[in-house]
Amino acid sequence: MVLIVILLVLAFAAILCAVEVPKLLRARSYKELLAFSLLLALGVGLSILKSLKVEIGNPSDLFAWIYSPLEGVMESLLKKG
Amino acid sequence: MKKTKISPRQLMILTSGFSFGTVILFLPSSITKLAGPDAWLSILLGTAIGLLFIWIFAKLGELNPDKTFVEIIQLYLGKLAGGFVAVFLILSVLVVADQSVWYMSDFVHTAFAYTLPTLPLNVFFIAVLVFALLCGVETMYRTTEMIFYFGFSFLIILTLMLIPKMEPENLLPIMENGVTPVLKGSIPFLFNCAWPLVFLNMVYPVCFENVKEAKRALFKGYLLGALCNLIIVAVCVLVMGSSLIANLRFPMFITSEEVDLLVIFSRIEAMTFFIWVCVSFISVFSYAYAGVYGLAKLLKMKDYKILVLPMGLLLAVYSLNIYTNTSYQIKWDSTVWPLLSFTLGFILPILLLILSYIRKIMGKNSS
Asked: Taking CB atoms and an 8 Å limit, are A60 and B301 in contact across chains?
């Protein structure tokens, strides 16, 4: 199952690259190419790590951490009575 | 980038769909938990307060025509601070979009098929989202119109079918514990339905020829969305009673199970689910579009569509554990989301509005 997921993700990335990269190169839009490849690399890397059951963190925790000093205020505000 | 055009009517429908999209399933319980039987009063109060914020968002768009929200942030806060705030905004919008996907799969698992694997389900939903993003705003907003007719007429039909089950005593006593519960009950309405509308500033002034008409459509849409919320909450409380609603996880879903009319019309909760997924798709699209389009604007790219598919992969990966579990979701939604919504929908627009007024006055003086 793990192998299938990894292969599927890699196939998805390969097809996407094959379709999009020549188009971008022809249009000489290197900024787009950089953003696209970084985002895709991030996605592929994270999904492989995820399927290997490595802890990849959670963006919700980031927001919870940012707002943790104000947590008590919100709890008392949204308490009944 | 090619200039996209949306009609004011589509904006109206989009606004209303956005303000009652994902939240209709949870809102009744979070409001009745605080306000008890006065939930409908809380919504009326919340709508009145919310109008002020809609005015702020509309004014912000009017003062900065042909600029999206991310561009406004960068213009007024400078490169460094503006970039930081914009990244924060984009990240939070994408997280919220992903959480809506999580809600959907959680709902399917709780209510219908708990043996269904999560990943394929999420991937299906995200595939539709990616397709919609690739088609662009115009296509999606035309679809929105169609979805809305479904959703709104179903809502009316549901209300009519539930009339025999309604008990007016459930609304009594009115204001038993004074005004405080009503005031508190309007807080969930604000952070769920009014403040997130700031993300519509990604489409609002840019895609319209006539900003004045669009502004009117924004107000109309907000009021329509508030009306839908009011109907849903009132129906839930009338049928089930406030103390029961406050402790249910999916109050609207459970309420629609109560329909039992002429033997034929009963157990229509699957229909409710279908409508909910359709309408919440409007919200998910608006969030995801704000995220991807904002990212493209931040990086000064010509077209956002190149980013859509990699972003879809990221959304699919994180949709599995964006909330670790249900108790985490309840805690996050009641302690973190209100503050996040407050920061982005209250502090940021007011700050930007003040700055744009200062800029306008300075511009007049120098010329």
From this structure: no
Cα distance from B262 to chain A (closest Cα, Å)? 40
Q: Is the pLDDT of residue B209 over 80?
A: no
Tell me the helix, strand and coil percentages in chain A, rounded to 5. 80, 0, 20
Strands B265-266 and B260-261: what pairing? Answer: antiparallel
**Cβ-contact B215, B58 below 8 angstroms:** yes
Residue B42, pLDDT above cutoff 70 = yes
Q: pLDDT-based confidence at B1, cuts 50/70/90? A: very low
Smallest Cβ distance to B299: which of A35, A46, A78? A35
Contact B251/B245 with Cβ under 8 angstroms? yes
Q: What pLDDT is recorded for position A80?
A: 65
Q: For chain B, what is the domain count?
A: 1
CA of A11 to nearest chain B CA: how many angstroms apart?
Answer: 12
CA–CA dist B252, B244 (Å, integer): 12
Q: How far apart are CA B90 and CA B174, in angstroms?
A: 42
How high is the pLDDT of residue B354? 86
Overall average pLDDT of the B275-292 stretch: 86
Answering whether pTM is above 0.90, one says no
C-alpha distances out from residue B299 to A13, A32, B307, Å: 22, 9, 11
Cβ–Cβ under 8 Å, residues B193 and B20: yes
Question: Would the CA dihedral through B26, B27, B28, B29 be positive or negative?
Answer: positive
pLDDT at A73 over 60: yes
The β-bridge partners of B260 are B266
Burial class (CB in 10 A: 0-12, 13-18, 19+), B51: middle
Q: Which residues lie below 8 Å from residue A28, measured CB to CB, with a gap of 6+?
A: none
Q: Is A60 on the interface with B (CB under 8 A)?
A: yes
Residues spanned by the domain of B185: 8-358
Helix (H) or strand (E) holding B261: strand B260-261
Residue B248 lies in a domain: yes
Tell me: pLDDT of B250 over 50. Answer: yes
Smallest Cβ–Cβ distance between B317 and the set A36, A46, A67 belongs to A46
CA of B123 vs chain A CAs: smallest distance (Å): 12
Asked whether the beta carbons of residue A47 and residue B317 sit closer than 8 angstroms, the reply is yes
Q: What pLDDT shows up at residue B256?
A: 79
Domain of residue B215, CATH code? 1.20.1740.10
